[in-house]
Amino acid sequence: MRNSMLRRVATVATTLGLTSLGLFGAGAAPAQAAISDCPSGYFCAWKSDNGTGTMYKTNANRATLGTWDNTFRSVVNHTNKFACLYDAPNYDVNSGTSVWAPDTRGTEWGYPGNSVSSIKLVPTERECVLPAYPEWGAYTSPTAAGFGDMNADRKSDVIVRDKAGRLWYLPGDDTGRLIGTGGWNAMSALTRHGDFTGDGREDVVAREASTGKLWLYPGTGTGAVGTRKLIGSGGWNAMDRITAFGNLTGDGRSDLVAVEKSTGKLWLYPGTGTGLGARKLIGSGGWNAMNALVGAGDMNGDGRPDLIAREASTGKLWFYPGTSTGGVGSRVLIGSGGWNVMASFLAVGDYSGDGRNDLATITTSSYVGEGCRGVGCLVLYTGKGTGALNAGAPEDANWMGLNGAF
Ligand SMILES: [Ca+2]
Ligand SMILES: [Ca+2]
Ligand SMILES: [Ca+2]
Ligand SMILES: [Ca+2]
């Protein structure tokens, strides 16, 4: 089927809406035989309204269409990729763009809705008009605190999972690098921050949805991750909000926290250097009331990592300071409401370059901010160094069409 154009620019934000337009119907009787002539793996087009006559087909990107330029009257995308149809040659998004979703049966055909002059086949919808990954820019932190920094250049980093299940490493200079070629959609939780393996490099922890296993992917120090190691043999689907916390227990190794779904208890899983040790109860109940947990690093400057949580019913943001005994202390309100417009929170360490840890958020459709509204705004909150946050500032409008960031 055909989806609406995904494009938006950073300063003029419009909501990404997925609507069906121009779809004539699946396999309407007169055209059925001709539409089915489109081979699997190909995008096909006809000059007629009903898919009859000479057929155009391609299984690769086409920057120009030669004699087929501006002639498509019916199309079908019999591939497992998104077909991006551009009004201009050379995939120029500034004229007009339409997107046809993957259709592995090759039955959903219709009018392309624009005067097609170039075609691209891509794994994710956002790649029709944007890079696969969003732009992440960070300033150099004055100290090598390490938190949020996978390649030790003192710039905080972000990892993004796209809808095709790939992982992209964003080193903080607006670029991105592929570090996971696929399969990451099998993971129902992704977290990082802190060094679990004891080599001084940040690592990634992931929960496998189908098995409830917990895997450790050691950071290589370059932003990539190495061969995974099993650190939880099962049962992790009973847990919610699995969050890498940093080194709470003070032994130099990073720890995990997670909420037990059935009880609302908050458990600490101490990192041992080779895996996770016996868990310790650090919150006796009520944590199911929180629908986001963020291991934000040391936000109040006492050297211990802290926790931020969002209360679902009120949209409040709470700060829980890490304590010397390996737990969390009395909470402090740091956001009086409205935080439910955030789809996700990213513990980014110190992106602003003042030595204090900060917080990044990605918005839902309900967000309205200055310069950006709707899904996929990146809003940054610098830390005050006390646990509290300064007012947020939208930084980028193109964090939509992804499948998570951490
Ligand atoms: Ca870095
Ligand atoms: Ca490590
Ligand atoms: Ca702290
Ligand atoms: Ca900062």
UniProtKB/TrEMBL annotation:
Q: Per its UniProt record, what SUPFAM superfamilies does this chain match? A: Integrin alpha N-terminal domain (SSF69318)
Q: Which UniProt keywords are present, listed alphabetically? A: Signal
Q: Write the signal peptide boundaries.
A: 1-33
Keyword check for Signal: yes
Question: Which top-level group of life is the source organism from?
Answer: Bacteria
Query: Which InterPro entries does its entry note?
Result: FG-GAP, Integrin_alpha_N
Name of the protein this chain belongs to: FG-GAP-like repeat-containing protein
Do the record's keywords include Iron?
no
Pfam families from the UniProt entry: FG-GAP_3, Inhibitor_I36
What PANTHER family does UniProt report for this protein, alphabetically? ATP_GTP-BINDING PROTEIN, SENSOR KINASE-RELATED
